[in-house]
Amino acid sequence: MRFMIMHRTNAQTEAGAMPSPEFIARVGQMMGDLVKTGVLRGGDGLRPSSEGVRLQFAGGRRTVTRGPFGGAKAVPAGFAVLRVTSLDEAIGWVSRFAALIGDVDIDIRPVTEMWDLGVAPKPEGLTTTRYMAVHCHDEAGGDAPPAPELMAAMGGLIEEMTRAGVLLATEGMQPSAKGARIVSTGGKHKVTDGPFAEAKELIGGYVIVDVPSLDDAKDIALRYADVMGDITMDIRALS
Question: What family does this belong to (predicted)?
Fold first, then answer.
């Protein structure tokens, strides 16, 4: 099974503070270990919300809130990674997605690249930016499967975005009842199985791992927490 382990932001990362070289090295070592064991399927960090936007769609109307902003009032239900020339272009594509599914909140933030961290040069001539769009869902409303017409329309939009070179990845998340939350403070870890409510903090970054069970994902997340320090992490099964 594939699981997404998401760590939350803190005041330092939301302020745009750069991680120390030692911290970057520790995270790099952990990622390298996951590669060696063959379980890593992806991972990225996200830039502060001050560089992003929150889109809220309700009753056919769109509200655009430029960052900074806090945590959403619902749990993440899925995400897409786009490569586009601007935040406004990302907003355009995401708005087309929202037009299909109805009332929804979607956060769009830039992905942290190696050159943002100062550990690699930015490729010469690169004019596009990767953005991660995370849409949220109020699980109290149930988890009914989408109608066949919606699935067909979504498939058509995904195909169009893929052909245009815009869509790099898209994933849906299973309900939080099939996940877990880990809160680490002072080297001590509290593990709570789902379901759970929204977190007060935004997603700061994530890794996707392919392991046999939720318990295996928890083991990796606890190693992740030892590297990250005081942190809140959610583990969610991917669809």
Answer: Belongs to the YciI family.
